[in-house]
Amino acid sequence: MDYETKPASRNELRLYAKLFRSICRISDTEPIDPIKLLDKLPEFEGFEDVRYEIVYNNALHGNVPAQCEKDEFGWLIQIKESTYNRAYEKNSGGDRMHIMHEIMHPFADKLGFKPVFSRQLTKDTPCFRRLEWIVMALAGEVMMPYEATKNMSIAELMNTYGVSKAAAQKRSTY
Q: Reading across the β-sheet that carries 66-71, which strands appear in turn?
């Protein structure tokens, strides 16, 4: 499900990605392993209330590979077992991006990207005001830092940062 939220420009998202990397003590150039990051998140300021669990493949609806929800304890990221295994064992770029996308939900919320419940999301709502687009774009900016990747080919992005071809293609256009 998607919601309208405050707008964000690509340049703002790049700054937020640098902030995230700084909070997590990750350099502006090194690749991130979302699987390893999951275990370290609670150690970082502002992420103490983020936890995750691996769930059976039928625990999440349809083709949802992972999800993040706020509950009374903070944030819970649920990841299908198959998604986690592919990201861990085969280093699947798409699954790695799904997991990073869910990690970005609490971060985006803490940055003030909250659903605007008084406005109904329509097909005319621009992407830069859609919460899911902002979170996915932020995940891409975190996984592939702009300054380090702006001159890389799609193959270099995939090999160096462990992202999917689709994510690498999007980076090469922005």
A: 50-55, 74-80, 66-71
Greatest alpha-carbon pair distance for the chain in Å reads: 44
Helix (H, G, I), strand (E, B) or coil at 83: helix
Pull the structure tokens for residue 16.
């937020």
153 backbone dihedrals φ, ψ, rounded to 5°: -80, 170
User: What is the SS3 string spanning 102-152?
Assistant: HHHHHHHHHCCCCCCCCCCCCCCCCHHHEHHHHHHHHHHHHHCCHHHHCCC
Q: Which two tokens stand for residue 68?
A: 């993040």
> What's the rounded Cα separation, in Å, for the pair 115 and 95?
25
Q: Are 35 and 66 in contact (CB under 8 A)?
A: no
**Number of H-type helices and E-type strands within the chain:** 8, 3
Each residue's pLDDT, cut to its tens digit, for the chain (174 residues) gives 788 789 999 999 999 999 999 999 999 999 999 999 999 999 999 999 999 999 999 999 888 999 999 999 999 999 999 999 999 987 799 999 999 999 999 999 999 998 776 556 667 777 888 889 999 999 999 999 999 999 999 999 999 999 999 999 999 888
